[in-house]
Amino acid sequence: MPGPRARWAMLAVLCVSVFVVMMDVTVLNVALPALIADVRPSPLTQLWIVDIYSLLLGGLLILSGALGDRVGRKLMFVAGFVVFAVASVVAATAAHSWQVVIGRALCAIGAAMLMPPTLSMIRSIFTDDRERMRAIAIWSAVAGLGAAAGPLVGGVLVQSFGWRAAFWLNVPVAVVVIVAAVPLLPEYRAPHRGGGLDWFGAALSVFGIMALAWGIKHTATGGLTGADVAILLVGAVLLALFARRQLRSDDPLLDVRLFRRGPFTAAAVAMFVPQIVLGAMLLLITLWLQSMHGYDPAQAGLRSLPIAVASLVGSLIAPQLLDRVEVRTTLGVSLLVVAGGLLYLGWAPQPISYGSIAAVQVTMGLGAGVVTTIASSMLVAAVPAERAGQAGAVSETSYDLGQGLGVALLGSIHGAIFAARMTDLPVSGPDADAARSVGGVVAVATRLGGDAGAALMAHARTAFDSALTTTAFIGAGLAVVATVLVVLLTPRGFTVSSAEPQRVSESDPRPAET
């Protein structure tokens, strides 16, 4: 077992890596307009530039978590960062739009390779329950900071050096992490159980999650079409077949039997549902800042920092809270804090002020920071050390799918309410039709200019605020439902250290190896 200094140095390497990857998830939102103006992608290529990252990342997490357990987590982590660095160079030097798509696809593959091992290596490095909880709290806080820093850092880089700088930034950081990781991080691989990797099962999980993610994303952007329903059904069927196959396997890629345990399912719900709310509200707050109030990306990023700071605080105080309050109560109250912030926004006086926006960011970030840290610790503690990659995969997949579903569900609801409120406009014909979407109304108002443009934007701000308060009430309802489920599934007196691992095969009488 490595000494204390070595353990925290290892954690620093893992945290730097997760910060860069989480920042890369959000930085493209800022760089995209400049990228489009430079390389001029077709509408279809632009769609792939935006979609390919989240589709591949979500689809590959279960496979990469299982591979890391088998071939070695350190090997998977370092190889993933090499792929990530090469991909960033490909994207940064792209002369054509198809090269950007390839670069983003490789970035997603690299991120999927290295993300599950970051959490599973924490499971192997920190064997003491309390110390592991503190390590996961720091890991969770840094991940939240990375996601929040993306728009701010990206905005500064794009404005100062152009869109390519957003990708070049990854390269020196990746080199430093790789150089530090090779001698510092310990290798861990699961004992050989016989047989090879279940590649057919892996294909079912990859294509099932990708189909589900695709359907969710395109429901958000274009409404629920027949094609979207078909893709969602295909995804659901593939994932059902994957679960059935894993139940019959002695060495599953993902031990779905873990979901029979109330605390494990509670942790997955606690990871998933808050991300639905956060994913949607972060998008809507960004639109409120940039589209409705005209802040540039860097200014908007700066005004989005309250949620990052609050998430950092929530993550870091979670271990101290559990010293005084049981898991069940802490998770329930923290989810109610998220709901309370959304209720406050729903009842906020209109026009909505930035003070109200900052307040809801603080409450959501604080509650979600506590929940994410505790839920991640529960997932990691619930699996044997030899299968910790599965916990990392469940954690990251819950995060990614939750964010995507939030944008699709709550984003679509907000868009529909906004369109319904955009009546009696000072424009008519095609301009009136275009003005019933957020992007369209900004374009029409900019083209009109003068008093007509200002009047249209004033109408749009009123409609946006009205839709935002209604969406906040719905988000609060989801958070309350999650609270009820988590409290019901988590036994009284349950502690993270009591989330004892169980054997992958329930017929195996041997105790779990930790």
Low-pLDDT runs: 502-514
Largest sheet: none
Secondary-structure element string = HHHHHHHHHHHHHHHHHH
- By helix and strand content, what is the structural category? mainly alpha
Rg, Cα atoms, Å: 23 Å
Number of strands: 0
What proportion of the residues form beta strands (DSSP E)? under 5%
How many angstroms separate the termini? Answer: 13 Å
Question: What is the quaternary state of this protein?
Answer: single chain
Number of helices: 18
Q: State the shape.
A: globular
The percent of residues in helical segments reads: over 70%
Mean pLDDT: 84
How would you characterize this protein structure?
With 514 residues, the chain is an all-alpha fold. The protein has helices at 4-39, 43-71, 73-92, 97-125, 129-161, 165-168, 170-184, 199-222, 226-247, 262-292, 297-303, 305-324, 327-347, 354-381, 388-421, 430-434, 438-448, 450-489. Residues 502-514 have low confidence and may be disordered.
Features:
514 residues, mainly alpha, globular
Q: What's this, in brief?
A:
The protein is mainly α. The chain is 80% helix and 0% strand.
Topology of this structure?
Layout: H1 4-39, H2 43-71, H3 73-92, H4 97-125, H5 129-161, H6 165-168, H7 170-184, H8 199-222, H9 226-247, H10 262-292, H11 297-303, H12 305-324, H13 327-347, H14 354-381, H15 388-421, H16 430-434, H17 438-448, H18 450-489
Helix pairs in contact: 1-2, 1-4, 1-5, 1-7, 2-3, 2-4, 2-8, 2-15, 3-4, 3-7, 4-5, 4-15, 5-11, 5-12, 5-14, 8-9, 8-15, 10-14, 10-15, 10-18, 12-14, 13-14, 13-18, 14-15, 15-18, 17-18
